[in-house]
């Protein structure tokens, strides 16, 4: 939580106009969006556009977060975090305050979206998230404070985005910010050193969180309590191995976890596709029964994974399209 003096210093009333000391850009404060340990985020208006403005008296914190956003901008093909718009200082009656302005990402958070649209969207969203996390990790960062509140789903075609980079940490350093439920240190399953496995642990806890919207407290702690929580929810049982593997830090990178999730999605699709029964040819033909192709096995998918990487994109695109069409159809009814 933010300390009282910092919150008082950065508290701004709606309607206040901030003029940047160096760039002279004017921002009209509309409302407070949230606050944390290092500052307050406001919804503001700039040139007829809504933006998010974060204010803090901690110049080092602002610089760190700006560097993260700049790093995100260099990650081609990733839309994980908001784009950076401006960095400046504001001379207020209470002293000089540093701030930066970023893209305002609007939409429901992850859990709200899943509750509204259905759990069929989960695989698509988590495949997106793991892909973006991998790109972030390849650039030397760990997101750190990964939780549903920081994951916003934008549209019209659903896309997962992160809105708070305050906990993003350079790999190898101590995690700057965390939320206990998603923190492996809290559960006694690892350190708070920034590495890819820290984020993947949080992804596993977010998956558990979809079945426990109100979360739960640590009791016995450790993997035993989390395993039991998984087994009590039928929606989590098909993902048990994947979740536990991430909780125990057995994935080397996000792409490994993504590959396992994709296999589960493909296996489920294969299982749900009814096998065509062998039929007898019509009278006047050979009279031999048609052969039924046996379904592909998980072993086959693993063996041919490298040859079918391009199919992942096609599969995800098809799934998103079908779910979006269903969503539009439901709205029209």
Tell me about this structure.
With 333 residues, this protein is of the alpha+beta class. The protein has two domains: 4-103, 2-Layer Sandwich (Phosphorylase Kinase, domain 1), CATH 3.30.200; 110-271 and 303-332, Transferase(Phosphotransferase), domain 1 (Orthogonal Bundle), CATH 1.10.510. Helix content is 39%, strand content 18%. It contains ten helices and ten strands. Strands 1-2-3-4-6-5 form a six-stranded antiparallel sheet. Strands 7-10 form a two-stranded antiparallel ribbon. Helix 4 (122-138) runs antiparallel to helix 5 (196-211) and helix 4 runs antiparallel to helix 8 (254-272). It is globular, with a radius of gyration of 24 Å.
Q: Order of SSEs, N→C?
A: HEEEEHEEHHEEEEHHHHHH
Question: What composes the largest sheet?
Answer: 6 strands, antiparallel
Number of helices: 10
What count of structural domains?
A: 2
From the 3D structure, determine the CATH topology of the largest domain. Transferase(Phosphotransferase), domain 1
Task: Assign the CATH class of the largest domain.
Answer: Mainly Alpha
In the CATH hierarchy, the architecture of the largest domain is Orthogonal Bundle
Judged by helices, strands and strand pairing, the structural class is: alpha+beta
Q: What's the CATH superfamily of the largest domain, by name?
A: Transferase(Phosphotransferase) domain 1
Distance between the termini: 45 Å
Gyration radius from CA atoms, angstroms: 24 Å
Average pLDDT: 84
What best-fitting shape do the alpha-carbon axes yield? globular
* Secondary structure tally: strands: 10
Strand percentage = 15-25%
Q: In order across it, which strands form the biggest sheet?
A: 1-2-3-4-6-5
How much helix is in the residues? 25-40%
Return residue spans where pLDDT drops below 50 for at least 5 consecutive residues.
Answer: 276-298
